Amino acid sequence: MYFKSVSWSIQYDLSTKEGERKTMKRVMAYDLAGKDRKILSAEDVKESERRAYDFRCLNLSCRAEFHYRAKSWPAEATKEREATFVRNPSSSHAEGCDYDYENKASRHRDVSFMQGGKFHLRINFPIGSSWTDRHPERGRLTATQRRAAAGNTGKKSVSSMAALVKLLEGEFESLESPALENLVLHYQGRQTDWPSLFKVAGTPARIFKAASSKSTDKTPALLAALRPVSTHTRSPGKEKPRFKCAEMKTQIAGTVVRLRPILVCETADVAAAVETGSTMMVSGRPYIQPRDLEAVGRFKNVAMPVYFHLTGRNQMAVVDDKYGRYSTIGTQTSLFPGYNPE
Fold this sequence. Notes:
Elements: H1 2-15, H2 18-21, E1 23-24, E2 26-31, E3 37-41, E4 53-56, E5 65-69, H3 74-77, E6 84-87, H4 101-107, E7 112-115, E8 118-122, H5 131-134, H6 143-150, H7 161-172, E9 183-187, E10 190-193, H8 194-197, H9 203-211, E11 222-226, E12 228-231, E13 242-245, E14 248-252, E15 255-265, H10 268-271, E16 280-284, H11 290-293, E17 301-310, E18 316-318, E19 327-333
Parallel strand pairs: 8-9, 14-19, 15-17
Antiparallel strand pairs: 1-6, 2-3, 2-4, 4-5, 5-6, 7-8, 9-10, 11-16, 12-13, 13-15, 14-15, 16-18
């Protein structure tokens, strides 16, 4: 027990210096006349704005005050310290404020820590690698990833999607809370911001963008709210258990695309955890067959299977139906790289 607590304190001290624990990348800026307010990002602050506004917490019910700290290059200009907002020593967040990450990290210090003003969580369930999810010891993990993962061994991990959903909804009430913009997940030595993993708005287009990327372990992973509706096995006894999910619609390069998500389960035990008729949060790396992608642009209304491979029960969890919005018709996106799926 003593060794474990020492391991935690070393990691915490290295990654959460006092000045870093109390920072925020964005604040609510109030002009000194009290007539205007706006959200301001630290990277966008102009010199003329530094003393023209009072900086406070993004939560309008919280009176925590901040001051601006410009970008700098400490340690004899060998490191870059990003611009940020630092909470004033005499100021504190309102009780229960969603942006009080320091307080949240202290309540979950076995799995979380603060760094650079962001709330970091280490997880231990797949979020989208293909080969390395099943064979991490033989996977394509770089030396940098292995070192980063080793540096987090002083902390436990959030063990499942269900545990992650419970933690986040308990702290932030909703998986769509604006305060989750500062959540970072650690998995296999990689860091991924929550907004890039999960956003209900534009879900079908986000799935299409990730699924149509080159199929490698670096292909973007995401979390998607899907609703399994029936089992689907073309060759009984030969294929892994599959489940059809409720259809999603989006518009790609002027073509209506009907995405048909299919959950592919590694084993029968994994399949037993799928609840048809319920909305389920699934972590995965969606995949579309190249031959199906070729149909986009050639037909006006395309039905396209998109596959999510589930290697374990911990990769999914039943969630509230409010997260399952399945259509973005009317949102134009482009088939070409670099398009914005929102």
